[in-house]
Amino acid sequence: MNKIWNQRLGQYQQKLLKYLRYVFNDHFVIALFFVFGAVCYGYFNFIDHYVHPLTFFDRLVAIVALMIILQIGKLVTLLQKPDIVFLLPNDYRINDYLIKARHHSMIMTALIQISCGLITVPFLVRILHFKWFDWVILIVSQVLLKWMQLLFEENVLFDQKWNSGQMQLLKQGISLIGIAIGILVSPWMTLIIAVVSWGGMLQLRKKANYHVFKWKDAIAAEDKRVMRIYKFFSLFTDVPEVHQKIKRRRYLDRLLPRFQQDSRQTYKYLYWRGFWRNSEYSGLFMRLTIIGVLLMLFINLKWVSLLIGLLFVYLTSFQLIPLANQFYDIVFTHLYPVKPSQQLASFRKVLGVLTAAQVVIFTVALLIATHSLVVAVILVIGAVGIELLLVYFSLNKRFNKGA
Questions:
Q1: Residue 221 half-sphere exposure, CB side, CA atoms within 13 Å?
Q2: How many helical (H) and strand (E) elements, i.e. helices and strands, does the chain have?
Q3: Across-strand partners of 173?
Q4: How many domains does the chain have?
Q5: For 107, what's the count of Cα atoms within 13 Å in the CB-facing half-sphere?
Q6: Helix (H, G, I), strand (E, B) or coil at 278
Q7: Which residues pair with 278 in a beta bridge?
Q8: Domain identity same for 280 and 218
Q9: What would the pLDDT profile of 69-120 be if each residue is shown by its tens digit?
Q10: Is Transmembrane helix found in the keyword set (predicted)?
Q11: Which range of residues forms the domain containing residue 182?
């Protein structure tokens, strides 16, 4: 079982590195550098100019922030669907496999909790007046609470009663009480609660071995965890593991163009219908637009907000290009009396309308954040340039090539 874990961990890490190369490409790294710098500047500028007296709302913000950070990271088991057949004879050795999975998950979640916890340190020190040893204890407690949650998730794989609403409420309740006491009273009390809860959950984990391992539930949980990662990667590149979900949305029928007898409009209708019904494309467009608007409103720097707007216009348009080939594998569409050039022209119109709508939203957000008409005009001009480059270069290369 240890050999199987080591092999799968190596394959999993190789796949992550493969997609990370596409995520952190040269252009995105440069844009991320500017965004990260702007966010840090805005954050520290806010901390330095915060002169209000300490209130309960300040403590509440810290509690909510730490609880959100605590939700990052899940138990990594790397189980696969064939395991329910091929590894079933080794069911009695599953604990050896899970110990490896637990240790890996603990290391990764500890790094995440420490990294994200350090972001809250300026807020804790400057606004909540924490001493340096207090925030160290609080972050250590945060790691132990996360380990407690990992053991909780491991127990679910043996006994489904741990997955009930009451038990999930208990898991989050212990963490919330511990963090709240640390912020409101003393971080040392949080450390005591974290150590007791982690130790108690470790003992309960040993008792869970008397139950039968739930292979289907464990595989389903792992598939759900991995799919969240793949969906993030799909924002930057094509990920074959992400399956498209088609939903019938009758309330969006009014946004579809009227069906016309003109064959040149056939693909225009199909593309709009495919965009709204496919959550991969419509959801991606909505998410990137909302994230871009929030960043532009939060970062009150003209040129950085402009770069963020142009970056998200590029990311959105680039990720919508695969929609052009959505109907290529459907044999009946090849019977349509529509030339490929007409199909390509229809997609350009659809992509142009979506980009124009996003640019209008970004322009309004930029005007609200910067009050600069010049920067807004530059955003529009830059977005038009990006669209022309994508439509006449990248789209022509990837059209009808299964890209």
A1: 19
A2: 16, 0
A3: none
A4: 2
A5: 5
A6: strand
A7: 246
A8: no
A9: 999 989 999 998 888 888 878 777 888 888 999 999 999 999 999 999 998 9
A10: yes
A11: 2-233
